[in-house]
Amino acid sequence: MEVFLIPTNSPRYELYCEVGAGPAVGPGENVSRGWKRWLVNQFVVVVGSVEAAKHGAVRRRAAREQRTIARRVHDRVICWLAERIAAQRLLWHLRGQTHVTAWFPDDMPRDGASDTIRTILRADADRHLRWLLVDGVGLVLSLLLIPLPGPNLILYYFTLRVGGHYLSRRGARHGLDDVEWRMQSSPDLSDLRRAFALDPPVRQRRMTEIAARLRLQHLAAFCERVAVAAP
After folding, report:
1. Could you tell me which residues are beta bridge partners of residue 7?
2. Which of 221, 175, 218, 229 shows the shortest CA–CA distance to 19?
3. DSSP string covering 8-30
4. Angle subtended by helix axes 69-94 and 34-63, to nearest 10
5. Nearest-angstrom CA–CA distance, 123 and 125
6. Greater confidence, 137 or 153?
7. Segment 158-192, tens digit of pLDDT
8. 170, 95 in Cβ contact below 8 A?
9. Domain count, the chain
10. Domain span at 72
11. Does this model's pTM top 0.85?
12. Contact status, residue 60 vs residue 75, Cβ threshold 8 Å
């Protein structure tokens, strides 16, 4: 597995990787019984349902089909949930790794890059634990809506939130405690840092060029979202 330490137009960094969709839980996942097994099983089902529904939503939008207001809201929620799934896949996949190559900008020291990765993972583990406790309450309450007809988007939402936070925290802790990191410097990531200072049209072209050199299909779009979201 390859992970990229992405510089931004602020002092912070982001971890990034591109992994296939695949199941949220691999064959090596050790969840034997109890609520954890139930949660993981439900999570896998909901992830599959959301990703399947996203394809339908994208197709309807591309074809400009006539949709009711309820259908438009449903499609927007499904696409938003699918984006949340994509955002957490790095930590989910990290759970099954023993060796990871971490690429970092060559204008920062190796030890600094390693410390930054550990700081990000530690913050992720703490954040996902907090939200796991908060969203767990919402999941319990959303179970009361199961008898209602139609897709239970509230249950989908809290199942994704709780399952995602649970697996993400496990991935972050695994990355801190068990993964052997192989650090590799990259001049392209240093170029990416400088690209954030460019005007938007030039920045987009530059990021697309850098993403092509790194062979990362979705990196340019990710960096553009980071640039727009930054204060």
Report:
1. 13
2. 218
3. -SSS-EEEE-------SS-TT--
4. 130
5. 5
6. 137
7. 877 888 888 889 999 999 999 999 999 999 999 99
8. yes
9. 1
10. 2-229
11. no
12. yes
